[in-house]
């Protein structure tokens, strides 16, 4: 039985444009769907569900689930306060492995316009980042991940806005983009203040989201979303109008 990938590689040339991700979803020999990402030296093959490598670390769906289990069983100190559980060097290595796997699959889903899948993978990465912030081995390790939180927020916002547009809800897409840009701005400002470093990709990403917001407004002729109208009504203390707008927003969310 042949074990090389010559046919796959030769039939799928690697000629990307700058910044382009080359990916496809294919059916494996056993009938399951997998995601393949073409890279310079070959092909990455990722599972479409669960952890991208198909493994169940220590029997858990993901390494994040395992870490949460470990952190929850630490117990209490003699003073009765919950002890702070801290990741070990081995935990950091395995967490980084999961970060990389979910990154590759997230950008593949965005390329394939599978925005629901990209959203799930972005949320997993953000949850893993939150865990690292709370339980990371040291400040340098935490910072090495927080530096890239903005990129994950950007991908999440892209996916959520695209999903809203697919559902023909441009108002919702605009609200998603505005919220994402605000979250990214807060992160960027906090990072710059705490690390005296503004040399991150965050500012260009924020600008891209502002441009995306204006494009959606123009293409779908949306002047103000219901949420923006609600903000105006509250600011003007028009509480009757605000109540009606809240009802409309709740109805739209159903």
Let me know the number of strands. 3
How much of the sequence lies in strands comes to: 5-15%
Q: Low-confidence stretches at least 5 residues in length (pLDDT < 50)? A: none
Mean pLDDT: 90
Helix content: 55-70%
Based on Cα principal axes, name the global outline. globular
Let me know the largest β-sheet: 3 strands, antiparallel
SSE succession: HEEEHHHHHHHHH
Distance between the termini: 54 Å
Tally the helices: what do you get? 10
Walk across the major sheet and give the strand order. Answer: 1-2-3
The radius of gyration computed from the alpha-carbon positions, rounded to a whole number of angstroms, is 22 Å
Summing up helix and strand content along with how strands pair, one would put the structural category as mainly alpha
Labels describing this entry:
254 residues, 10 helices, globular, 3-stranded antiparallel beta sheet, DNA damage, UVR_dom_sf, SOS response, UVR_dom
What does this structure look like?
The chain is mostly helical and 254 residues long. Among the domains are: 1-58 and 87-146, no CATH class; 224-254. It has helices spanning 6-10, 63-72, 89-111, 115-135, 139-146, 149-166, 170-195, 202-220, 226-235, 239-253, and strands at residues 22-27, 33-39, 42-47. A three-stranded antiparallel sheet has the order 1-2-3, with helices on one face. Strand 1 and strand 2 (33-39) form a beta hairpin. Helix 6 (149-166) runs parallel beside helix 8 (202-220) and helix 9 (226-235) runs antiparallel to helix 10 (239-253). The radius of gyration is 22 Å and the shape is globular. It starts with 5 loop residues before the first helix and ends with a helix. InterPro entries: UVR_dom, UVR_dom_sf. Residues 220-254 form the UVR domain. Pfam families: UVR (PF02151). Keywords: DNA damage, SOS response.
């Amino acid at each position: 039985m042949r074990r090389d990938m010559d046919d796959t590689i030769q039939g799928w040339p690697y000629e990307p444009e700058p910044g382009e991700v080359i990916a496809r979803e294919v059916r494996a020999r056993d009938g399951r769907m997998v995601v393949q990402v073409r890279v310079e030296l070959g092909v990455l093959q990722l599972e479409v569900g669960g952890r991208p490598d198909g493994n169940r670390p220590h029997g858990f769906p993901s390494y994040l689930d395992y870490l949460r289990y470990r952190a929850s069983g630490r117990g209490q100190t003699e003073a009765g306060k919950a002890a702070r559980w801290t990741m070990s060097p081995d935990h950091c290595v395995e967490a980084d492995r999961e970060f990389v796997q979910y990154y590759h699959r997230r950008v593949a889903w965005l390329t394939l316009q599978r925005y629901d899948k990209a959203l799930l993978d972005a949320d997993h990465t953000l949850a893993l980042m939150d865990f690292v912030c709370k339980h990371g081995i040291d400040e340098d390790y935490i910072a090495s991940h927080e530096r890239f939180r903005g990129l994950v927020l950007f991908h999440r916002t892209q996916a959520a806005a695209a999903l809203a547009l697919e559902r023909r809800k441009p108002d919702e897409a605009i609200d998603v983009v505005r919220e994402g840009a605000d979250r990214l701005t807060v992160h960027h400002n906090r990072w710059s203040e705490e690390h005296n470093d503004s040399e991150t990709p965050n500012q260009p990403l924020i600008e891209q989201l502002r441009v995306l917001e204006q494009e959606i407004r123009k293409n779908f002729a949306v002047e103000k979303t219901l949420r923006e109208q609600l903000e105006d009504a509250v600011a003007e203390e028009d509480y009757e109008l605000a109540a009606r707008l809240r009802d409309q927003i709740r109805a739209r969310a159903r």
